[in-house]
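Lab notebook: predicted structure, single chain.

Context: the supervisor wants predicted structures on file for every construct in the current expression panel, including those that have not yet been purified. This is the next one on the list. No modifications to the sequence; it matches the entry in the shared construct table.
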Amino acid sequence: MKQKVLLVEDESIVARDIRKTLERNGFKVVGVARSVEKAFSLIEEHHPTLALVDIFLKGNLTGIDLAEVLNKKEIPFIYLSANSNQQVLEAAKSTNPYGFVIKPFRERDLLLTLDIASYRYENKKTMDNDRIYSSLDTTIPLSPSTQKEKIVHSKVDQFRCENIIGKSAAMLHVFNLIEQVAPYDTSVLILGESGTGKEGVANCIVQQSPRKNKPFIKVNCAAIPQELMESEFFGHEKGAFTGATEKRIGKFEQAIGGTILLDEVGEITLEMQAKLLRVLQERESQRIGSASTIKADVRILASTSRILEKELSEGKFRLDLYYRLLVFPIRLPPLRSRKEDIPLLIDHFLRYYAGKAGKKIPALDPDTMQKLLHYKWPGNVRQLQHMIERMILSNNNKIDPEGESNTDTTPVMQAKKEQPQVKTLDEVERDYILAILKQCNFKISGTGGAAELLNLSANTLHSKMKKLGIKITHE
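Prediction complete. Output recorded below exactly as produced.
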């Protein structure tokens, strides 16, 4: 049966193009509304099964106001948006849409979002309206119903993710979201505090996807100097810039046919965010120094421990890129909110590290288990993992997480307390010269040396290094 779609859009040209796209692809458009008031009457008359809703419309009411009615009538909807400020973004998120499409968009972007929205809605109905699914806030708990829990547990038992441990409601929800999105090529944004297992979720998505036997390239965006990002992502041609002595294949080109994980995507510069957006929109990349483009048949997964909404409000992250990545978000819960999983995780890590060390699996002291269950775990699963590993290596079945917290959590706690500091010009220049020196293997003069790459004489570079306190013992 054809999906009956209500299109709520006040720009006539945009509405016409979307209508043609939908009808060409088997959807039935039951009407086009330029205002919320008109949408109300079309809903009552035609009972649509899906709605595409622009946020800003003619009249006093917005698409966000309409969303309240759509939710009450259990009609899934997708927002269409050209732009938004922080306040509107928060209001839109609170209505739990089934997707976002950013204007301008291509036909396949719209169709893919519609496909996923339909799949999510059907899955929600199949689960008897269990709240295992939440469109944008994945921290909503599952229903405690015993019958529903049995259904979910049975489903998860059939759906395995290597090295992801947990049977709490929050983790069952994560497994369900992974199962929903894995078969598709849509981008996924994995959110969560440091140490919650975001890379494990990315691995699981790839394992369950049709691209599982294709390249899977992981990029730690936080570890790449800003001035080297474009070359690292997209590659460069020989001679593209001073020091480019040979052609370089970028990470996106390496991942063609497969998947790329942009770990800590919130660390990417605004300039690179614009270039990444082009890859998402146009599905093509371009090496530095090349006039031709490369078709980028690459599925993009992204993860971040940053709060991107805060980055948006501070102008550090592009809204259009945020929406592009937000097609399907998965939010990982912190360990402190799923303490029922701690015994499972402890057992898993005890077996793993005991086997790795060739030792017997130790029995934990009961007092230690209680301490582990009641600890706040600021470093999340990674902190627990490291603590168990140290316990095995030290042949000790007693550990005090409070006593060991300085070892694992000091960096985590400091990271939360520290405020970003504005660097001086000398500090910026020093960091840049150090990055170039590392790129040149600390060679200063001659062909391919840092002086050549910086377009300076060797003497000038030596003077700058002395002034900035940069010391190396060899060239």
